Amino acid sequence: MNSEGPENLSFRRASVDETPALAELVGRVFDAFVAADFTPQGVMEFRSFIAPEKMAARMAAESTVYVAHSGEALAGMVELNHPEHIALLFVDQAYQGQGVARALLGLCISEARLHQPGLPEMTVNASLYAVEAYQRLGFERTGAEQEKNGLRFVPMRLRLI
Known about the structure:
With 161 residues, this protein is an alpha+beta fold. The chain is built from 5 helices and 9 strands.
């Protein structure tokens, strides 16, 4: 699947050999916007989660990753744990506010509906920084702020039916 989205960005499924670049993007955006809300343990936990070898293992098992590119530049990525949970959704700072996250989410919804046509909702554990962005994408809070292993998040869902 390769489609065009906002600002002539291309969107496609990622391959396992891209995991180092994906981890670098996620780590850079995490450091700039999210890390300050996590404990030191949470930062270590998150860094472990995005390690290229762990991302590759998830892609081989239960996850699908989509990427957005502007030419050769990686603009954003999303990891969908089948069929309904968004594990990671990160957009490079230079591309934020241009519809990249919305387009990546649209790919996830299409993928989820292929695997489970009657899927009622998608979920995400949103970082505190990302809650408002997810609300703009149609997600709603399903619980209060939580902390697990130093990771602070708000559980959210997007109703699909």
